[in-house]
Design brief:
Strand content: over 45%
Oligomer: single chain
Strand order of the largest sheet: 2-1-3
Number of helices: 1
Distance between the termini: 8 Å
Radius of gyration: 16 Å
Shape: elongated
Number of strands: 3
Largest sheet: 3 strands, antiparallel
Low-confidence stretches: none
Length: about 70
């Protein structure tokens, strides 16, 4: 069986430090940016994510890309 993947949506997520808990461990929050073009070059996405991250007041833990696709038989 041959399968195909049809990209439907992509969002950028920046995970940043939000503080510490009672035991002193770091806590984190996520900022999401939806409507990223599904065919946008990954290098361009990273450039934009890095620029956004530089404007945030907290240390960045991760930059992530969430992709949603529909899978079906070809």
């Amino acid at each position: 069986m041959e399968a195909k993947k049809e990209p439907k949506s992509t969002s950028l997520v920046i995970e940043l430090k939000s503080g510490t808990n009672d035991s002193g461990a770091d806590t984190f929050k996520k900022k999401s940016f939806s409507n990223v073009k599904v065919d946008a070059p990954i290098n361009n996405i990273l450039i934009v994510a890095t620029a956004i991250a530089s404007l945030l007041d907290a240390p960045i833990r991760n930059i992530m890309l969430n992709e949603v696709s529909i899978l079906s038989e070809a």
